[in-house]
């Protein structure tokens, strides 16, 4: 009687990450925090880099007059210009501050973009496995989620995408490096994707936005380079945050960047600014905008994440688990040794190891591990993985 | 082709505050910042109180481990408990942290509340003049805005409200101290309002939420006490922020507080937390949650705002303007000497004084002045008000 029917239904459907969080809390209370090995959350254990602490200290000790006041809803010109300069450097395209809107993280940015572009009933494609919140975000603004599968290597199937695109397709969300798989899309793949979208736009006389969620852009391993998506489709909008690269997830600071040559760019940016305001974000948090302005080239220690990946990946393979080696982000997405991924996650729980079932990402038959945790947690989890592997005769 | 039809339409309809901001920017460029007297924006000129600076310094110099990480979507337990303790003190009701959800300001909180409760087509009442964003917020979540008038003193007309409430009415938004009028509702009025809502709930067998936007609760003059709304209706939800009381509008920190005895309280709070997450706020900014925890009894200098009110109010009355004396917030809403409020605001602009026409708040025939500006700006504006008054023979 009180709560919206849709919200109630979506709450029940729920978040598996959240569910694991709650079950984990019970285990931790029963066995002690140090005896539970929680690989269920993408909440980086690393502190922000020292440069961030310095910037924050500088700002707090020498406050700028009015630095906690409202600014333009798009954010501070200086911060937007700094982001634009960095993107210009990374992409060789000419970004200006007018292509950038500062947002409350990537989650805020995605909601702003979707609200801006979606008419009721228009479709947005996501590729399974995917961050399930995408479905909530699309639904928030009256859109319809179309799920397209990926192949064995978690690369989207372009023939399936081609079949899924209709005259009502308004956007395609990609996320590379990927949550939950850790896969990084190749430049060649992105080129083919952009090419397909361009052809479909011509076929239907529409604009199809490539919405690239790049929250993990800077967390990338093995000397791989991140291939800029902008080069391959003019209707590209990037949403990202400093949650992972500066380890600031609680601070809600990120941005939207639009292709400088996107058609109707000015109206779109006007829409982003309007929706940033009217969805209630108003503006990205002021102090954090100041703090990240000079940190566009700073990133947490990626080598440390790579070491964690190597450690966990090596041990899991040795135990007989089957998985695609992640090249970025801080997740891996092994095959579930049991057909029922929830049953397997429950099995791991018997050994006080917390993971998220693949169905929490639209891909049952897998499970997600997050390794942005302490080495002690990773080391402690091995016994549980080993026992589960032995019980199920993986080797 | 790119932007949503609804967003485009709402952008064109636009915000008068924003329009004045843009026209003001042109004037400032032409005549110099110091020669334009901008009373159009509710962006407090005051710096946050020294206690805030101290808290921030303490946190930055002695960082808590993980203090920039994700926390539960509802916010830190310690911060929620501090807010609950303060509300218990102010209301003599027993709030616990489970009644509190930390939000990205009151704008974020209102969107979260409306998303949580509204089914498509359900109605929410607002009282004109009102903060026009309320209409955008309601529309964001599929609701329908019903505008009910106020009387000459800007007190909502309860007979009109009674006539406006239907079986589809899900909420009534009030804002006291009020933007744009500065009016503070009396306890007697709130009692009558709660009584009416209770009767209508019985009549229709519904729950009607009293959504009390209390962003200006602590900015109140003449020794007036703020009458807690909670006492008068069980289905009350308060949204507020520290934007005004701690002068932190750019930082986006506020909270939702639900009546501890609200029916279906647990499901509602679960909905708030869910919507806080899925609308993309995720959580209120972490550092600001830490910072405001110990500042629940701290407020900027209200005496200083009162001085500004007395100054501007006194001069305007003397010049012949007709207005209700504001008792809180930092706005006044005089009658427009010209029937066409836009024409009068343009008249003021001739003298480099910026105001917002009443139609920007759903009440043509008035204009809004914001006096959270420097004394120099207030003093400088008088010449323009005087010239306009003389030209229109007000005295």
Q: What would the keywords be for this entry?
A:
homodimer, 395 residues, alpha/beta, 7-stranded mixed beta sheet, 3-stranded antiparallel beta sheet, 13 helices
Sheet-strand content of chain A, in percent, reads 5-15%
Distance between the termini of chain A: 54 Å
- Which pair of protein chains has the largest interface, and what are the residue counts? A-B, 78 and 78 residues
Q: What kind of sheet is the major sheet of chain A? A: 7 strands, mixed
SSE order of chain A, as H and E? HHEHHEHEHEHEHEEEHHHEHEEEH
Helical stretch tally of chain A: 13
Low-confidence stretches of chain A: none
Q: State mean pLDDT of chain A (0 to 100 scale).
A: 96
Share in helix of chain A = 40-55%
Shape of chain A: globular
Output the radius of gyration of chain A.
21 Å
The structure class of chain A reads alpha/beta
Assembly state (oligomeric): homodimer
- The spatial strand order of the largest sheet of chain A comes to 2-8-7-6-5-3-4
Q: Give the beta-strand count of chain A.
A: 12
